[in-house]
Amino acid sequence: MMAEFYLPVRIVSGDGCLSQLGKASASLGRKVMLICGSSARRSGALEKALASLEQAGEEVLVRDTVSGEPTLALVAAEVEQARAWGAQVLVGLGGGSAIDVAKATAGLAPLQGEPREYFAGRGLDGPALPWIGVPTTSGTGAEVTMNAVLIDEQTCLKKSIRGEDWFARYAIVDPLLTLSAPPRVTAQSGADALVQAIEPFTSIAAMPVTDALCRDAIRLIGRSLLPAYQNGADLAARRDLAYGSLMAGMALTNARLGAVHGMAHPLGCRYQLPHGLICGLLLPYVMEYNLPVCAGRYAEVAALLGLEVAGLSESDAAWAAIGRVRRLMRDIGIPERLSQAGVERIDYEAVAHESMSASLKHNARPLSEADVVELLKRAF
């Protein structure tokens, strides 16, 4: 089978590598619009980023406007600001929401239309501004993907806008920036990272290069998520999580995702649940559904998660992987059922219909809307 792997992102990684932000930005332009949330200011990450940018002689406009999920309205406001100020470079500093807002702003600010038109399906008709992704959590891998996941609050629709030139010019992955992430954020972003390592591994678009990335990502995340959750100052665990998340992002942008993400988007929008929580909750159920066609892959996942599988049949090892995932999610505070997460009732048919996205189309085992309804009922 022919496959193509594409990732035009220069990745800078290592403890303290945030100091390289100014040098990277100066190679792209002089007027830098930095998008972040309030947590970046509280943690000191913003102060360090500004010091690097100012040392490089950059003119910086700080927009600490991101809180919660990235909305179309927020992106529209940032696009307007970027156009008015004449931004030449965007920096996304924070979790996946801040990075996606910066990415979408970089992609849409130079265009003639308004963000809502492109969200509705208008083709991208121009190049993006250069941008730099600086994650402060380990989860989404958004610093190395070409899509921004946005929510239209008017219609409760959550979907991606993507473009081949929406990749970051630089991804700066500094594990030290993740030390301040609280346990809940560590758990939910880490759960998302594990899903994003496992889903490309079983995707119908998987290829040898993404398989290699997924194997390392599963191993790193599997051994570090619980320690990082229990002790946020565990730098070895934080490093493993940061690099595992990065590798998962590199894999998913080429091999895509699966049913977990297909269902997570409408569930998150309709019931105001954190994305990582939904992903971690749904993962064991989707693994059970995929088991008839993924036993070999899940048996390998079991070994990558540190289980002793010698002497087990392929099926037994696969079931052991599902059990290990379920225990890990429980240990980091992810509820086992949607009803335990505060969802009182689900409009099963509507969620199933909205789940039939590109992510679902790459799932290892095909799903109909009826299959999604049954999965949701089991997870409720």
Annotation keywords:
single chain; 380 residues; alpha/beta; Rossmann fold; Dehydroquinate synthase-like, alpha domain; 53% helix; globular
Describe, in plain words, how this protein is organized in 3D.
The structure is a single chain. By secondary structure, the chain is α/β, with parallel strands linked by helices. It folds into two domains: 10-177, Rossmann fold (3-Layer(aba) Sandwich), CATH 3.40.50.1970; 182-379, Dehydroquinate synthase-like, alpha domain (Up-down Bundle), CATH 1.20.1090.10. It has 15 helices and eight strands. It has helices spanning 21-26, 38-43, 45-55, 72-85, 96-108, 115-119, 183-202, 208-230, 235-255, 259-271, 275-304, 314-331, 348-354, 358-361, 369-379, and strands spanning 10-13, 31-37, 59-66, 89-94, 131-135, 147-152, 157-162, 170-173. It has a six-stranded parallel sheet, sandwiched between helices. The mean pLDDT is 97.
